[in-house]
Design a protein that fits this description.
Length: 382
């Protein structure tokens, strides 16, 4: 993150905390790195990582399409002007509403099970998602291409599902694979792409090979791109990619203020953000870099805990910090992906505000919710 510390202080002062801040330059740089590595590949942003309309609009303006997994995400894609070839509809259990919305937009459907050719709207464009049945180097909950994971059809089924799509009058364009998120070992990608390439004798040439996302923020993109391109060439196919985390993670930081400290056998620094703002540490044991935006004092180790009445409400463990005092600001880094998008109103907490730094100033891109926003859909008893 390259936002200067005085600008972070100013944002916390102006918009309050907890606050998500995004660096537009980092978002643009991440997209440039993807394009440099993957060349002509069509880029679909997996908006589950962060669906803020301002960020979507910026990516849309740069020619990026969207991978959507719900009616709500399809509505967001439409809202920022994406249509047709720029929209993918994905998900293991699509609803009638999602099929209809996808058809209205002229989207491409990612077929996830053998029954789907009979469920798609007439004459749909489609890819078949293949589960390569591989153990991958990530948290179990983030692995989507393992044998026994609920996603995709088996390698054996894939040629048959392509045939069934064609027989049902659909435009079966190719294959799709996405083996998980925050994958640490690049060899996992090579293995998955190689398994897909082995299907060529059974499928013949295809128009599209979509290799999903799942790249960690430090991933060797040129290496992954080379392997993906090699697999696509086997089919004579055009390459599509669906990065989520890679595009937005580094651009985003969660700013939180120190509320106080306590010792209960472990030293805790208590912050005004926790699991309701950033769920990933609790859900996946994710480790985010934590930076103290204050100086001075002896550095000791602290667990960073949020305000929720849940003992798992921890943002980080064993973080070296100079003596924290109430009001001090902490920056939780690499929080742009699956941070705000997974935030919740559990405990009737207001989901945080979000602000974008353009190198010279701030724009509020989501106001902080109020308690009234949180209960807006409920009925007050007469
Ligand atoms: C099908 C599909 N594509 C792309 C992504 C994006 O993954 P990541 O954010 O790890 O790049 C996901 C995330 O779960 C996904 O399920």
């Amino acid at each position: 993150m390259t936002i200067p510390h005085p600008a972070l202080y100013a944002a916390a002062e102006r918009f309050g905390t907890p606050l998500y801040v995004y660096d537009a330059a980092e978002l643009d740089a991440a997209l440039s790195r993807v394009r440099a590595a993957f060349g002509e590949a069509r880029v679909f942003y997996a908006m589950k990582a962060n669906p803020n309309l301002t960020l979507l609009g910026r990516l849309r303006a740069a020619g990026v399409g969207f991978e959507c997994v719900s009616a709500g995400e399809l509505a967001r894609a439409e809202h920022v002007g994406a249509r047709g070839e720029d929209v993918l509809v994905n998900g293991p259990a699509k609803s009638a509403q999602e099929y209809a919305a996808g058809a209205r937009l002229g989207a491409t459907f990612i077929v996830d099970r053998a029954e789907e050719p009979g469920l798609l709207p007439p004459r749909s464009r489609a890819l078949v998602r293949v589960n390569p049945a591989l153990a991958v180097s990530t948290h179990d909950h983030l692995a989507t291409g393992a044998a026994g994971s609920k996603f995709g059809v088996t390698l054996d089924q894939a040629p048959e599902v392509l045939r069934a799509l064609r027989e049902a009058g659909h435009d079966a364009r190719g294959l799709h694979v996405h083996i998980g998120s925050a994958i640490r070992d690049a060899a996992d990608f090579s293995a998955a792409f190689a398994r897909l390439a082995e299907l060529h004798p059974h499928t013949g040439d295809l128009e599209v090979l979509d290799v999903g996302g799942g790249w960690g923020v430090d991933a060797d993109l040129p290496g992954i791109a080379r392997e993906a391109q090699a697999a696509a060439s086997v089919f004579g196919a055009r390459l599509w990619v669906e990065p989520g985390r890679y595009l937005v993670a580094r651009a985003g930081t969660l700013l939180t203020r120190v509320v106080g400290t306590k010792q209960t056998g472990r030293p805790f620094v208590l912050t005004d953000a926790g699991m309701t703002e950033l769920l990933r540490p609790m859900l996946y044991g994710a480790q985010h870099p934590v930076t103290a935006l204050w100086g001075g004092g002896e550095v000791t180790r602290w667990d960073v805990a949020g305000p929720a009445c849940e003992s798992g409400d921890l943002l980080a463990r064993d973080v070296p910090l100079p003596g924290p005092t109430p009001g001090d600001l902490l920056a939780i880094g690499e929080a742009g992906a699956y941070g705000a998008s997974m935030s919740s109103s559990y405990l009737t907490r207001s989901r945080p505000a979000e602000a974008l730094w353009d190198g010279t100033g701030w724009t509020l891109i989501r106001r902080r919710e109020t308690p009234q926003d949180v209960w807006a859909a409920e009925v007050t008893p007469a």
